[in-house]
Design brief:
- By secondary structure, the chain is mainly alpha-helical.
- About 80% of the residues lie in helices and about 0% in strands.
- The protein folds into two domains: about 1-35; about 40-170.
- It contains seven helices and no strands.
- It is flat.
- The termini are far apart.
C-alpha cells in the first residue's frame, strides 16, 4: 500500500468516524433536551405503570405465599436443610426480581410486600430450626402447612393482597 492509498483510507476513516461522532452527539443532545409534554399524555402512562406494578406485586404475593411456594418447590428426597434453603432462596429471588416495582407503588404497599417476604423467611427458618437434622424436606413442608392451617392469621399473605388491591383501586378512581 503506497502513501496515497494510506492517506485516502485514513481520510475515509476520519470522515466516517466524525460523522458517527456527530450523529451520536446530536442524538444525545436530543435526549437531554426537555420534552414538552401535555400532562394529559403523561398521566395515563404513569397510571398504567403504577397499575402494572400493583399487578406484579400481587402476583409476587401469591407466589411467595407459603402454601403456593411449597406446592411449587416441593421436591421429594431433599433434606430439611436443603428444602429450607430452597424455600428461602426462592422467596429472595422472587422478591429481587420485582424490587424495581417499589418505584411505582406507595411506601405502605411496598412495606407490606417486604414484611411478607421477611415474615415468610422467618417462619421457614423458625420451623426448620425445630426439626431434627435427619428430617426430610417434606416434613418441613408439612409442618409449615400445619402451622398455617392451625393459625391462619400467622401469615400476612391475605392482608398484603388487600393492601395492594386497595391501593390499586385508589389509583383507578
Amino acid at each position: 500500500m503506497d502513501t496515497m492509498e494510506m492517506i485516502g483510507a485514513l481520510l475515509i476513516a476520519l470522515v466516517l468516524g466524525g460523522a458517527l461522532a456527530y450523529i451520536f452527539w446530536r442524538e444525545r443532545a436530543k435526549a437531554k433536551m426537555p420534552q414538552i409534554a401535555s400532562p394529559a399524555k403523561e398521566q395515563p402512562v404513569s397510571l398504567q405503570l403504577q397499575l402494572q406494578a400493583y399487578e406484579r406485586l400481587t402476583l409476587l404475593t401469591e407466589r411467595i405465599a407459603l402454601p403456593n411456594l411449597i406446592s411449587r418447590t416441593n421436591q421429594p428426597g431433599l433434606s430439611v436443610r436443603e428444602m429450607q434453603v430452597m424455600l428461602v432462596q426462592t422467596i429472595k429471588q422472587e422478591f429481587e426480581y420485582n424490587i424495581s416495582q417499589q418505584i411505582y407503588v406507595t411506601s405502605e404497599a411496598w412495606d407490606a410486600v417486604r414484611n411478607l417476604k421477611d415474615q415468610n423467611i422467618h417462619i421457614i427458618n423458625q420451623v426448620a430450626s425445630f426439626m431434627p437434622a435427619d428430617a426430610q424436606g417434606s416434613d418441613l413442608n408439612r409442618q409449615i402447612l400445619e402451622m398455617i392451617v392451625q393459625n391462619p392469621k400467622a401469615t400476612l399473605h391475605n392482608v398484603v393482597e388487600e393492601v395492594l388491591s386497595f391501593e390499586a383501586k385508589k389509583i383507578m378512581r
